[in-house]
Amino acid sequence: MPTPTEELRRRIVADINAGAPGTKLGSERDLSEHYGTSRSSLRQVLAALEEAGLVDRVIGRAGGIFISHAQVQRSLSDVVGVPAFLANQGYVAGTRVLSTRITAPDRATQHALNLTAEDFVVEIQRVRLADGSPISLELAQFPADAFPGLLEQQLGGSIYEMLESRYGLVTARADERIEAVNATPEEATLLGIKPKSALLLITRVTYDQNETPCEFSRDLFRGDRTRLAVTVQGRGIGVQPAVDTASVALQSQTTKAS
């Protein structure tokens, strides 16, 4: 049973998720009446939300409480789980496991994980939260033969950390492709946004210490809450590029016949 303070925080975060950045939630007086709470309790929760970057408090006649939606930064230079990079930025990470199953891989998964149509994969779909607010929708697949009993493990935290401690696997590198897409109605509902909102689709193949593909995932990050960062090395004329490089590829535009 959540405490009154936690319940108040959840209600405000839910309203923040339903709004757009820059929207005014109201004045302290308005909000205390709306949520049926004291000004002191409200200020305590608002102070925590402001520190987390979810709201801005503006003083003055035209002031009030505004939705901020601070962006989460995801580095393209490191292979780390979502809880790790959220914690490094001061967020409280959370997870909702939506579904798990053992299923046959489709052709894209077969190609990514070097599997055949007779093999099976463990599929895990989760919503990732930052300070209680949904930021990403994950669909990850793992070779079932390589990870027996995977669905019996705790799946609410970092799967990378669990794979290392339980199966001795170390994530050595990942190949990622990034696309801008629009949210479907189902994705929008799960992420607390409007349909057709901008999303970043990150398709990833992760390799272990033996250069064996161990994960194929499709992550959808909210475009209004995420920015990408990458560190690249400069090089002079005649210097060969490093093996680990980052690139941006433009999607070819196809013309439909009229």
From TrEMBL:
<dbReference type="InterPro" id="IPR036390">
    <property type="entry name" value="WH_DNA-bd_sf"/>
</dbReference>
<dbReference type="Pfam" id="PF07702">
    <property type="entry name" value="UTRA"/>
</dbReference>
<dbReference type="InterPro" id="IPR000524">
    <property type="entry name" value="Tscrpt_reg_HTH_GntR"/>
</dbReference>
<dbReference type="InterPro" id="IPR050679">
    <property type="entry name" value="Bact_HTH_transcr_reg"/>
</dbReference>
<dbReference type="InterPro" id="IPR028978">
    <property type="entry name" value="Chorismate_lyase_/UTRA_dom_sf"/>
</dbReference>
<dbReference type="InterPro" id="IPR011663">
    <property type="entry name" value="UTRA"/>
</dbReference>
<feature type="domain" description="HTH gntR-type">
    <location>
        <begin position="1"/>
        <end position="70"/>
    </location>
</feature>
<keyword id="KW-0804">Transcription</keyword>
<keyword id="KW-0238">DNA-binding</keyword>
<dbReference type="InterPro" id="IPR036388">
    <property type="entry name" value="WH-like_DNA-bd_sf"/>
</dbReference>
<keyword id="KW-0805">Transcription regulation</keyword>
<dbReference type="GO" id="GO:0003700">
    <property type="term" value="F:DNA-binding transcription factor activity"/>
</dbReference>
<dbReference type="Pfam" id="PF00392">
    <property type="entry name" value="GntR"/>
</dbReference>
<dbReference type="GO" id="GO:0003677">
    <property type="term" value="F:DNA binding"/>
</dbReference>
<dbReference type="GO" id="GO:0045892">
    <property type="term" value="P:negative regulation of DNA-templated transcription"/>
</dbReference>
<protein>
    <submittedName>
        <fullName>GntR family transcriptional regulator</fullName>
    </submittedName>
</protein>
